[in-house]
Design a protein that fits this description.
2 copies of one chain form a homodimer. Chain A has 6 helices and 11 strands. By secondary structure, chain A is an alpha/beta fold. Chain A has one domain: Stationary-phase Survival Protein Sure Homolog, Chain: A, CATH 3.40.1210. In chain A, helix 4 links the parallel strand 6 and strand 7. The radius of gyration of chain A is 19 Å and the shape is globular. Chains A and B meet through helix 2, helix 3, helix 4, strand 9 and strand 10 of A and helix 2, helix 3, helix 4, strand 9 and strand 10 of B.
Chain lengths: 256, 256
Amino acid sequence: MRQQPLILITNDDGISAPGILHLSSIAQKFGDVFVIAPDKPQSGMGHAITINSTLRIQKTAHHKSAYAEFSCTGTPVDCVKMAVNKLLPRKPDLVLSGINHGSNSSINVIYSGTMSAAIEGSLEGTSSVGFSLCDYDINADFSATTVFVEKIISSCLKEPLPKGICLNVNFPKLKDDEINGLKICRQAKANWVEDFEERQDPYGRSYYWLTGKFVNFEPEAQDTDEWALKNGYVSVVPIMHDFTAHPYINHLKNTL
Amino acid sequence: MRQQPLILITNDDGISAPGILHLSSIAQKFGDVFVIAPDKPQSGMGHAITINSTLRIQKTAHHKSAYAEFSCTGTPVDCVKMAVNKLLPRKPDLVLSGINHGSNSSINVIYSGTMSAAIEGSLEGTSSVGFSLCDYDINADFSATTVFVEKIISSCLKEPLPKGICLNVNFPKLKDDEINGLKICRQAKANWVEDFEERQDPYGRSYYWLTGKFVNFEPEAQDTDEWALKNGYVSVVPIMHDFTAHPYINHLKNTL
């Protein structure tokens, strides 16, 4: 293997999704691309790992630009752990996740398998980026993402991200010439107001589908990822995996 | 229903686990207890939600102290969403998750279904606490937790936690008289060094079990949850769901 950058790629939509094919085709310009991704869609899996069940991997051939690729029966986080600890010849220089079909901005980061894979990459001590396009369509047009993905890969290879921080990058559903550029943001305060659609199975028993409506609690704030996306920018949010609410520690010391 | 506090209880070990039975028996002293928990163990599920599949719920009768209880085919986060948006008569006053069989201190918070349920509770705008005992044994002794669980429930009902913050409470595996008290801490910098144990199935094909070794990167730091637990304290870490690495935003603005 050439000693050029080693780039690990995964996603949560599955190894043959158009978004990950687009990502690997860009990444191969920067180094050796190793792909391991779920063998089926794993959207909404968050930071789940497989500990009550076994894992299997299989060589696949979806990515022309990868020097090796595997599908895995596990979650996106399992894929990163499996690659880093079992399959890769050395620690990767970059972990890329996506490009997800659908937004992972704001609070979606917490449910996102795509972003959890990137967070896991940063936990393993590697610069990591999750990419998502705000378009759930399987035939979504990823072409406008290329120049920005290239810029971010190039930047992360030149100056690695600090330990414990990864990037959450979301693309608006726009054409090249409609995008205003990159915008560094914070995660918007938002939530899903859920509804559970109740249906009857053919045997008369109830079952439920989780549905919901996204609500941005601060639509006016201009430093959030939601604002950036609505205003034609590619949003970039640095994400950390220290979940401690540091400013609240002192208050708690006085009340508990 | 009496208008006393409404307390929602869930976990990730499943609705009949000893830890959740102990928790509901304590909580009933403070209000009306509503239990909804997974119908099977969901450890390691992180913030996973069920969007590619359906959900079912079923009335159960494991908790003598609950006014209503349901098992759910989904994840811990699904349970909280289902309760808050579909089953409860009003917004709960408190969401409690656990008591987990096994530690959720430090980086374990990211993989933990128990803590994800608590984080989801805080996302829904309710004071939420996840409890875990550092003992994986199904026959673990939960008796030493009682007085601390009572203290924390009482405190959260008296003064609700700020929006967006929940508590991660871990108990050392010690007897009543061996515990030094509560200690407010931050999440220790730590990680799992994974190994994938490779085995052969009866048909000669490889499969893997995820295993690993926990490594605390800062064993000397006395303000972490790991230190507290090792030194006989109950650790309490305030956890937030804004994952933005705020201090890094300005640097990123200059480099990307």
